Amino acid sequence: MLLFRILAAACAVAGIPFAQSTAPAVTPGIVPLRPAEKYEWQLKRAFQPVRWAGWAAGAGIAQWRDIPEEWEQGMSGFGKRYAAALAFTGTRSAMIATGNVILKVEPRYQRSRSSDPKARVRHAIKWTFLSPRDHGGSLPALPRLASAYGAAFTARAWLPPSRGGVDQALARGSVMIGLDVVNNLLAEFGPDLFRKLRKNKQQNTN
Question: Which is nearest to 155 in space by CA: 177, 142, 172?
């Protein structure tokens, strides 16, 4: 109940309708994923090769900063920090995929059809907090939002006391939602950027 109230308030501030919508939200021609395919899609997305490098870099930085202080230095401490990031990602991915299957959510980001950069930014932010459904319509992005905080609180099971507080779990969940906004922005503008870079490279080689 508290989560629904928080979502309703956040959507009201952002001007996003909280109630389920029946308006078309899925791009025409997209075939809905079957339940098993949603788990497979989420698994591939969560464990891309670049993510493994990111976890290693994050674990290295955390070890350099001695966070958490209860975990030792050396390979043993690095392994704990790396495993913690891996466990968090796996936990959240399982929660998202399960929620997507139960609520019949289409997990693939659908880019804006607008050419206005501001409208595209609003689109990316909006669809962080809303999710399209398999056969049209939309609803609040409960799998994404609930999994951010659900995984953050689950992580208290393996994190030491200095990093396992309730306030830290709430902050961790909020950071994950912020990163989801960034991921949507990358999905929105990334293809255009890569296309432009590729075009410039071809022009320079000619």
Answer: 172
CA–CA separation, 94 vs 143, rounded Å? 10
The DSSP-derived string for 112-167 is -----HHHHHHHHHHHHHEEEBTTS-EEE-HHHHHHHHHHHHHGGGTS-GGG--HH
| Residue (of 132, 120, 141, 106) closest to 184 by Cα position | 120
Closest CA to 141 of 103, 198, 172, 98: 103
Q: Whose CA is closest to 36, among 109, 98, 86?
A: 98
- pLDDT tens column, 46-58: 999 999 999 999 9
Where does the pLDDT of residue 136 fall: very low under 50, low under 70, confident under 90, or very high at 90 and above?
Answer: confident
Q: Could you report the per-residue pLDDT of 21-35, keeping only the tens digit for each?
A: 444 455 566 889 999
Alpha-carbon distances, residue 196 vs 114, 115, 206 (angstroms): 18, 15, 16
What residues are paired with 132 via a beta bridge?
Answer: 138
Model confidence, pTM: 0.81
Q: What does residue 21 show for φ and ψ, rounded to 5 degrees?
A: -110, 150
